[in-house]
Design a protein that fits this description.
mainly beta; 11 strands; globular
Length: about 120
């Protein structure tokens, strides 16, 4: 129902910042809750952050709380993940995902996924 393309990843030093973008196509983007997940080699997908359709409700994993901010601009069909104070442990492929409904923290609850963008944080 919605197609997602992430961008903005790259190599950054510890303590630096990156902003990831997820561009969505489709007719009903505003009705979807959006989430960010990440996955490092050999590890399971990990929940990072989620935001509801209006942007009024957000939820963060404890590991990123206070450092990452999720936001969305429905007029631009785009969701963002601002990542500050990056740590080497944040190194992973980051994925955005969409679901029609409320915020969720489980990957299985999301229906549509982007291709991912690599974030590498050097120590």
């Amino acid at each position: 129902q919605v197609q997602l393309v992430e961008s903005g990843g790259g190599l950054v030093q510890a303590g630096g910042s990156l902003r990831l973008s997820c561009a969505a196509s489709g007719r009903t983007f505003s009705s979807y809750a959006m989430g960010w997940f990440r996955q490092a080699p050999g590890k399971e997908r990990e929940f990072v952050a989620a935001i509801n359709w209006s942007g009024g409700n957000t939820y963060y994993a404890d590991s990123v709380k206070g450092r990452f901010t999720i936001s969305r601009d429905n007029a631009k069909n785009t969701v963002y993940l601002q990542m500050n104070s990056l740590k080497p442990e944040d190194t992973a492929v980051y994925y955005c995902a969409a679901r029609r409904g409320a915020i969720a923290t489980k990957a299985d609850n999301y229906d549509d996924w982007g291709q991912g963008t690599q974030v590498t944080v050097s120590s």
